[in-house]
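Board notes (copied after class):
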Amino acid sequence: MALLPITKRTMTRLKDQIRLAKMALKQAKKKPNLYTEDELLYMAMALRHAKIQLKVKQLRRKQEKGFSNELSETSNGNSRSREDDGLCGEGEQPEQPGQS
């Protein structure tokens, strides 16, 4: 299998690449003489690669937004497990409720 050389990288959206590759593969099924075997293999490989890139991009964006179940680096887990951090002072409390 000889891969076709890519001389110029086009900047198209991944969804457009997926859509165009699917359309070309469907046309190839209807008209078998439209593309060579090498071109069909290249389009199938490009389709798989674009789908993988799209999934990676979506996962990266989801993790950057911060709505994942994983703990972030700045999170210190349970915020109620603080011991003496100086925020809650122990003042004198009356022994009988309602008396000051």
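Comment from the instructor: Residues 29 and 35 are 10 Å apart (CA to CA). The chain has a mean pLDDT of 77.
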